[in-house]
Write a structure and sequence with these properties.
221 residues; alpha/beta; 11-stranded mixed beta sheet; 7 helices; 37% helix
């Protein structure tokens, strides 16, 4: 049995590779009964990368999605674990159901756009607890092949406080790696943004490590 561990960005994969001592095998990281990849950001890359992985490694019997996610309320603490009971693709309305978990709650909303604060109350009313950009796409590929999947994502920021806007989002390339040119131009334009970016970086560091720990715990369970 092989378990696939899938995240969106290199920074999410890095702590998992270190903790499991995975080795590089082309675009994948591998260990005993484990294969791990990052897909890149957004539903399109998540769909293509997941399908390519499942084609290349036909003995995968379970998929664990892990990484960071954005909270929809100011009250949700940075570092809080989100194990959704449902995941919805915002573009199609399709609903996906992960394998049962005793701590599962709420719905994760997968979207390719930055969600403005004024849209959050309507999402909260639907039971949405966090926002991401890949989980529903990965789930759709898995369910089409009858492969069970789970999701363990950790809060790294809050959509409700505007800490991640379109400008900050575009500081990363589509594969999740930083874009140096955009970063330089951003700080030239916003020299006072350094404390804000440090805070976001700390949140991301905490969240990626907790997400990796959750994925490892699920793998061992």
């Amino acid at each position: 049995m092989t378990v696939a561990l899938i995240c969106a960005m290199p920074m999410e994969l890095k702590p998992l590779v270190k903790k499991l001592k995975l080795t590089k095998d082309g675009p994948r990281r591998v260990g005993d009964g484990v294969v791990a990849i990052y897909t890149g950001m957004g539903t399109d890359l998540a769909t293509k990368s997941t399908a390519a992985l499942l084609d290349a490694v036909p003995d995968i019997e379970r998929v664990i999605v892990f990484g960071i996610t954005g909270a929809v309320t100011n009250e949700t603490p940075i570092g809080a674990m989100v194990i959704p009971a449902k995941v919805v693709n915002s573009e199609t309305g399709a609903v996906f159901t992960p394998s049962p978990h005793p701590d599962a709650h709420g719905t994760m909303w997968t979207t390719n756009v930055i969600t403005p604060a004024h849209e959050l109350p309507a999402l909260i009313a639907q039971g949405i607890v966090s926002l991401d950009m890949e989980t529903a796409a990965i789930a759709e590929v898995c369910e089409a092949r009858n492969i069970p999947w789970s999701a363990f994502r950790t809060i790294s920021d809050r959509a409700s406080d505007g800490s991640v806007d379109e400008e900050i989002f575009k500081l990363s390339n589509q594969d999740g790696s930083p874009n140096p040119g955009r970063v330089i131009r951003y700080f030239a334009k916003h020299p006072g943004a350094i404390p804000r970016m440090i805070k976001l970086g700390r949140g991301a560091f905490l969240a990626t490590n907790k997400a990796a720990d959750a994925a490892i715990a699920a793998l061992r369970a």
